[in-house]
Amino acid sequence: MTRRTAPPPSPLPQRDGVDPMRVRLPGEGGWATVREHLVERLSGAGAGVVEGMFSRGLVVGADGEPVAPDASYVPGMYVWFHRELPYEVPVPFPLEIVHRDEHIVVVDKPHFLATTPRGSHITETALARLRRELGVPELGAAHRLDRLTAGLVLFTVRPEERGAYQTLFRDRQVRKVYEAVAPYDPALALPRTVRSRIVKDRGVLAAYEVEGEPNAVSRVELVDRRDELGLYRLTPATGRTHQLRVHMNALGVPILGDPLYPVVAAPVPAGEFRRPLQLLARALEFTDPVTGVAHRFRSARVLEAWAGLGDRAGQ
């Protein structure tokens, strides 16, 4: 089996904490020039965008030199360029640093801030913001937390060590504990362990459960109750997309503020931050694969739906 050669290092620096795009030209195709291929490949960028990038010398090769508009197509060739990014409404909540050393950075992420650049969220992400604020361009995410979920996220400082930390999550050697506010149902017997098979189709917003071998396991416990709401402790043993949200919905107690479960709501306008999902990654525990230190981190954030009930009770 032939091992694929690693791509050359990027000749372009980051911009606003975001890496340049890297494109490897396919081994087969009928394009005469590099420009023709990118025009077809980036057709969604809009008419004239790629042409403008070439005319301004913004597409470069491995040597950092601009690729000429008439440069011949070379299978396997790498090119780099920065995307022209639209304006993003700033997420007006702080990204708190819980721990920082020479190997890792652990942050307490607010609701509405994506972990890594993806889709329409690029510069307004935890990764891009941290790279800018800390001045560490090599910073990378060891795992991801949903944009709508607040709480603890682990980032790595050294690219050569990132795989060791990512392996912890892959091999389920990290204990993650979440808290959620959801309706209280006196008929729901808790604690319990929920097991099901969850499927998330590409391009579809909501995940769903199907028959078959379980691939998602969550422990659900009721911690406290106030009026018609409950505070729940959720401990996932697996990491499927939207797993906790799907399991809570399946139990008949969907998490407050969830725009997908049980019903997919209409998109909210950009800059709407009034109804955060009441889900928080409260605790993160693992043994550091590089230093051997046993880490136990805890979020200092509060779920506003629960805090509001407490304030009301104290009046």
Fold and architecture overview:
This protein is 17% helix and 26% strand. By secondary structure, the chain is of the alpha+beta class. The strands form 2 sheets. Strands 3, 4, 5, 6, 7, 8, 9, 10, 11, 12 and 13 form an 11-stranded mixed sheet that branches. A two-stranded antiparallel ribbon has the order 1-2. A hairpin with a 2-residue loop joins strand 10 (216-226) and strand 11 (229-236). It is elongated.
Concise structural overview:
With 315 residues, the protein is α+β, with helices and mostly antiparallel strands. The chain has helices spanning 34-41, 49-55, 126-134, 159-170, 243-250, 304-313, and strands at residues 21-24, 78-81, 96-100, 104-109, 140-141, 150-156, 175-183, 192-199, 208-210, 216-226, 229-236, 279-287, 294-298.
Topology readout:
Layout: E1 21-24, H1 34-41, H2 49-55, E2 78-81, E3 96-100, E4 104-109, H3 126-134, E5 140-141, E6 150-156, H4 159-170, E7 175-183, E8 192-199, E9 208-210, E10 216-226, E11 229-236, H5 243-250, E12 279-287, E13 294-298, H6 304-313
Parallel strand pairs: 6-12
Antiparallel strand pairs: 1-2, 3-4, 4-6, 5-6, 7-11, 7-12, 8-9, 8-10, 10-11, 12-13
